Amino acid sequence: MKKKLIMPALAALLLLSGCAADISNAELRAEYPPIFPDYCQVTVPCNIAPMHFQMSDNAIQVRVMAEGADGKAVRVKAGKVVTFGISAWKDLLASSTGSGLKITVQAKYRNKGWIRYAPFTIYVSSVPMNDHLVYRLIAPGYEVYSKMGIYQRDLTSFQESALLENTLIPGNCMNCHSFSGNHPDNMSIHIRGELGGTILKTGDKIEILNTKTEETG
Fold first, then answer.
1. Model-level pTM?
2. What are the sequence ranges of the domains in the chain?
3. pLDDT by residue for the chain (217 residues), tens digit each?
4. CATH architecture of 24-124
5. Are the CB atoms for 93 and 85 separated by under 8 Å?
């Protein structure tokens, strides 16, 4: 019975070892990897969301090691697009604040095999950024639109949420949003269309101002 169990296990082990990528003989290159966005030698705030990237050439596989200042590393295997888990990324940033992350990229090419590029550093500033960005989201062909809105994104993650969408006021356009002194408590936004006007938020107080004139209808 034991022999019957051992043989399938041995066969599976041999199969896995045969499929594993052999990158021990990778060609060493002195240049940084061709990635997009180009994060080589940049400085980032200590609370930024995971910085995913992709190879900008014809690589078919990629292996990445992101090493924190404490020596702990996160390894990623991917086809072409490299993504980091948010928990692992936050741990890397926390251990490297005031110093940097060492990123090593190895890529496989059809006619070249594996290439190991020169490691690059992502410097991690101890100064955090404001964690939210507000913007109008609209389809590229904005001349004829159906849905648009004012959205906010948490820059420490990839979470996006709507502040106001024009589905609440069909047929109306919303734009020209601004914050007084970049403070979220004080905001204004203009609505164009039949139900148009200016929305003014001061603290918890929200007003709708009728800005129409005889000339504007």
1. 0.75
2. 24-124, 132-209
3. 444 444 554 444 444 444 445 677 889 999 999 999 999 999 999 999 999 999 999 999 999 999 999 999 999 999 999 999 999 999 999 999 999 999 999 999 999 999 999 999 999 999 999 999 988 887 776 666 667 788 999 999 999 998 888 777 766 777 777 788 777 888 888 877 776 778 788 888 888 777 776 665 5
4. Sandwich (2.60)
5. no
